[in-house]
Amino acid sequence: MNTVTAGESIRLELDDIQSGALHERPSPYVGSYLLLRIDDRAAGRELVRRLHAIVDSGRPSSDPAHDAWITVAFTYQGLKALGVPQDSLDSFAPEFQQGMAARAAELGDVGESSADNWEKPFGTPDVHVALAALSPDAARLQAVVERARRAREELPGIALLWQQDCYQLPTGRTSFGFKDGIGQPAIEGSGVPPSNLKEKPLKAGEIILGYPDETGELPPMPTPEVLGRNGTYVVVRKLHTRVAAYRQYLRAKAATREEQALLGAKMVGRWQSGAPLALSPEQDDPELGADPHRNNDFLYADDPRGFKCPAGAHARRANPRDSLYHDGSVNVRLHRMIRRGTSYGPMLPEGVLEDDGVDRGIIFVFAGAHLKRQFEFVKTQWLNDGIFIGAPEEKDPLVGPHDGSGTFTVPTKPIRHRLKGLPPFVVTRGGEYCFAPGLRALRWLAELET
């Protein structure tokens, strides 16, 4: 097989890349995440052989039947359970080998969010295989989940450890009430058009292994080549959202419903409709928020002091766009990744301010070729820290690891508005670092003879 080298024109091998890595899901959709344990190596390889037959590639399809698909990924322990040779295991990224639980404290998962408090089996050596099944409706989801069930039936060496159903409302909103799924980077060679015409597509190697990345180099890739090429690292996190606490905080800090909506928008960087503050700073614009050709087509450099969108707002922290280019100290493009968020649990009814004790939140999935400089950098340097925006003590107002003493600054004239006493609105319930191989790699794993 010819290896693509830096400088060549990029043509992604879409038939070998799992569909979940590059292509948008249907909207709305329903889905299910499953975690499996491999107790018998032969059974594990047979499972991979069966899954290979039902995993879809990343080539776009207009066939409605392909709106339902399965993505499969493995933890380090899972690859070990399959019998991947040690020299190959040693070639994976150190963060992947260690696992998320070992790095939880560094990621800001402390206190209630610490790995000791995670929902089992997250953070244990038992998690070997992660499956995601997504579909536009319940009937097609049931069909695709049934395909996955049949793949593991009559394999006594495979155990289902955990399952979490998820969904996206027709509004596309999360449990906090904000439209999500906006702002994905376009990937060179993927065939998916950009939603922000002011930014050129990311180099394919930022997401898929085996291609040059933004540095012009080939990212480190697991060996042998058949195992690493066209694969991607996948971060899975279950985040419990404290919606009642969030609503109570807005009510305590803002006198009217309009002021509460504005404060919420300042914390997130967007109005609940999805309209960005950068384009509509004074009032919500649902038409703008619903327009995929406009709701991500903006930059921040014209708002350096954050009067339209605070520099500390969640969306601006997670993707500062061009606002960090002025001194050349940070290349934001080195920290972009694919981000997928799916809701779980029932929505807290509108207007309810008391916690009903029901578990609800978001399953976040991130995909990229560099665990450390993508997910871990964004989490530790941009979401958990404020040095890069000149506010070292401030964390992300929505997802930061707060302890009740946090602050958030809203630039206003003539005097800035500083909010105090931010409680934790998000609690980490678990997470895993996984690797989603290409389809040829799945076949290689199934045919291992070690």
From TrEMBL:
Region (Disordered): 276-296
Keyword Isomerase among UniProt keywords: no
Oxidoreductase found in the keyword field: yes
Boundaries of every DyP dimeric alpha+beta barrel domain copy: 68-147
GO MF: heme binding; metal ion binding; peroxidase activity
Source domain of life: Bacteria
InterPro entries in UniProt: Dimeric_a/b-barrel (IPR011008), DyP_N (IPR049509), Dyp_peroxidase (IPR006314)
Swiss-Prot/TrEMBL cofactor(s): heme b
Gene Ontology, cellular component aspect: cytosol
Keywords noted in UniProt: Iron, Metal-binding, Oxidoreductase, Peroxidase
Family the UniProt entry places it in: Belongs to the DyP-type peroxidase family.
Record-given protein name: Dyp-type peroxidase family
Source organism of the structure: Kribbella shirazensis
